[in-house]
Amino acid sequence: MINCEKASTICNKKQYKEATLLEQIKLSFHLLYCKTCSAFSKKNKKLTILCNKANLYNLSEQAKVKMKETIERNI
Amino acid sequence: MTENNLNPDSWVDQYADYLFNYAVARVSDAEIAKDLVQETFLAGLKSAKNFQGAAAERTWLIAILKRKVIDHYRKINSKKGKAEVRITYRDQGDSAGDWLEENVADPFSTLENDEIENEELGLAIQECISKLPKKQSAVFVMKTIQGLSTEDICNELGINPSNLWVMVHRARTNLMGCLNENWFKL
């Protein structure tokens, strides 16, 4: 038996494919009787799908530091 | 921040990723997109005194970036003849020899809308990420967008894994709430 806090952590790990098999079994068992966590798990999955769909890009930290410097020089 | 004042110091933190996503979607090259964002910030600084405060800072910067994207395409097309469209047979690939007309988009397809919708979704997510507390957004970006391993992130930020998962949890919960408002109920 696991509590909800543990369940949500496993659920988050699962979004990044880092939950072990045992953890996943524990989680699905918990989801059988816990409505709150089932709802959270569904939403969490949805967020992962959205993030994958959106082709997110990010500037690297170095690039940002460089940009900041350039801005400061030109203020 | 007062209403018609600009805050160039916080531009990079607040808008760089948002503008970068916008640019990448249009020029499909990360290096060029990065340069365009940089140019946008500089142009923004130069014309800061013309800023009326009529629009939000971000809208104003996006407007500048739009011009920069157009300028970019003008520049690469400036050599005479490059902008011409030549209609001939296809000369490469499996469909070599087919008429080009056979390759026009299917008017009944809605696939193109997905592209547009995904880009808007990307901008909505970036906006929500920029609203997160700094630590949460750092962890979330490293984990989700850059796809770094838990170990690497822990080393870089000097935190332990359970700490990391708490931060991921908070970031994800905040994002769900934010997207619920900004994306699903538009």
Unreliable sequence segments of chain B? none
Shape assignment of chain B: globular
Looking at the overall shape, the CATH architecture of the largest domain in chain B is Orthogonal Bundle
Largest binding interface between chains: A-B, 28 and 41 residues
Distance between the termini of chain A: 59 Å
Element order of chain B: H for helix, E for strand: HHHHHHH
Q: Care to describe what's here?
A:
The complex is a heterodimer of chains A (75) and B (186). Chain A is built from 4 helices and no strands. With 75 residues, chain A is an all-alpha fold. Chain A has one domain. In chain A, α2 (21-33) packs across α3 (35-53). Chain A is elongated, with a radius of gyration of 19 Å. The mean pLDDT of chain A is 90. In chain B, α1 (8-27) packs across α3 (57-76) and α4 (111-131) packs across α7 (161-184). Chain B is globular, with a radius of gyration of 21 Å. Chain B contains 7 helices and no strands. Chain B has 186 residues and is an all-alpha fold. The two termini of chain B are 26 Å apart. Chain B folds into 2 domains: 8-76, Orthogonal Bundle (Rna Polymerase Sigma Factor, Chain: A); 112-184, Winged helix-like DNA-binding domain superfamily/Winged helix DNA-binding domain (Arc Repressor Mutant, subunit A). The longest helix of chain B is centred in the C-terminal third of the chain and has 24 residues, at 161-184. The mean pLDDT of chain B is 83. Classes of the chains: A mainly alpha (75), B mainly alpha (186). The interface between A and B is medium-sized, with 28 and 41 residues.
